[in-house]
Amino acid sequence: MRNETILIPLAPGQPMAAVMTPLLSYAEQSQARVILLTVVESLDMVCRAEFTPLEILERTIDEQKVQLDQMAEALVKQHPDLSITTAVASGKPFIEIVKYAAKAQCDLIGIDARRGHKETSCQYGSTTRHLMRKSAIPIWSLQPQPEHQVRRVAASVDVASGEPETHRLNERILQRAAAMAQRMDAELLLCHAWRLDAEGYLRTWARWSDTEIAKAAQSERQHRLERLEALVASSGVPADKVRIELLEGGTETVIPELVEREGIDQVVMGTLCRSGIAGFVIGNTAERLLDALHCSVVTLKPDGFRSPVLDQA
């Protein structure tokens, strides 16, 4: 099995902030190859100047390459086992990131997701959100952690559906979370939100008693637990290395509550997509959960997902 290749996009002039420490430590532990990428947006100038827009763009690219090379040199001094290369592209940032990651056969894209002036919904920048929606490669969006360490990793899965595609995505989520937890010496949790969706109907129209409702809920909970245990078995993750958390309630409510209560530093989750006018759009539940989480998040797409960016290239 080949070592991973991790792409770290940086805006022009953006430093490698301490928030990225867990990613760099993970890369070093994994003996991964790291690529630092800066995308310079194309210039659209109509004013007369000493240099043409193309000349200015070329100079900017050269300057950014020098800065990235200097950054790489400094990082290798801090992380001697890291293999780091650099690259500069021009164009729309999220488009060039997706294209470069595909060309370089990257396994993971790590990005600083902090938004100092955003604390509620839409806390992710537009580039991060575009990548989460349109990249087939997993996105690791990093938020600040105490002492820049990851102590607990949660794999958030949906076992309500028995579809093979969903089961395979769940396996990949758990396997990715387990690998990260192992390499960062972190505790691993497997969490799933459930509820008896038909409860309102059963009470109002079927006139079930509280006892009958409770029995149905207990049966549903046991069914979900059995599916979680089967997922652990099929994923190859040792059962004694994962703690199962079965949470009753809406996903976008109970998962963030678990993150807060347990001090979870990182959530690994899937973003099942549906076809739309612009190719694919992220599921509504995943969008709401992302907005409610205030920790680092790794998002995965189902097998077979192809970025619409590549189809338009």
Automatic annotation (TrEMBL):
Annotated protein name in UniProt: UspA domain protein
InterPro entries: UspA (IPR006016)
GO cellular component terms attached to this protein's record: cytoplasm
Entry-linked SUPFAM superfamilies: Adenine nucleotide alpha hydrolases-like
Taxonomic lineage: Bacteria, Pseudomonadati, Pseudomonadota, Gammaproteobacteria, Alteromonadales
The keyword Cytoplasm belongs to this UniProt entry's keyword annotation: yes
The family this protein is said to belong to: Belongs to the universal stress protein A family.
Keyword Cytoplasm: yes
Compartments (UniProt record): Cytoplasm
Domain UspA: 5-140, 171-300
Major subcellular site: cytoplasm
Keyword set, alphabetical order: Cytoplasm
Entry function: Required for resistance to DNA-damaging agents.
Name of a matching Pfam family: Usp
